[in-house]
Amino acid sequence: MNLPNCPKCNSEYTYEDGTNYICPECAHEWNEEEQIESTEFVVKDANGNILSDGDTVSVIKDLKVKGSSQALKQGTKVKNIRLVDGDHNIDCKIDGFGAMQLKSEFVKKI
Ligand SMILES: [Zn+2]
């Protein structure tokens, strides 16, 4: 049985505990299903196109921005995106707003 490396610290000394895997080096615990999900980590835009780090996208609808009185306008170009795992799965910098996170369902690849 070949156990997967720890997804956090890449340790190979992981062991199995019931349905969980445990890393003795950083104490990270995860289960097999989460592991499969994270290896197939895919971010798609509003049209279902797969996005990659470094892509340029445009915003498909006006979006409210937390902590800003301005809204992010539909059609705003966002260069050099970085994909992250989470609810807001795009990390980016936008002129006039600075660093922020977007949801991939509100952008399209251009
Ligand atoms: Zn670890």
From TrEMBL:
<dbReference type="Pfam" id="PF08274">
    <property type="entry name" value="Zn_Ribbon_YjdM"/>
</dbReference>
<feature type="domain" description="Protein YjdM N-terminal">
    <location>
        <begin position="3"/>
        <end position="31"/>
    </location>
</feature>
<protein>
    <recommendedName>
        <fullName>Protein YjdM</fullName>
    </recommendedName>
</protein>
<comment type="similarity">
    <text>Belongs to the YjdM family.</text>
</comment>
<dbReference type="InterPro" id="IPR004624">
    <property type="entry name" value="YjdM"/>
</dbReference>
<feature type="domain" description="Protein YjdM C-terminal">
    <location>
        <begin position="43"/>
        <end position="109"/>
    </location>
</feature>
<dbReference type="InterPro" id="IPR013988">
    <property type="entry name" value="YjdM_C"/>
</dbReference>
<dbReference type="InterPro" id="IPR013987">
    <property type="entry name" value="YjdM_N"/>
</dbReference>
<dbReference type="Pfam" id="PF03831">
    <property type="entry name" value="YjdM"/>
</dbReference>
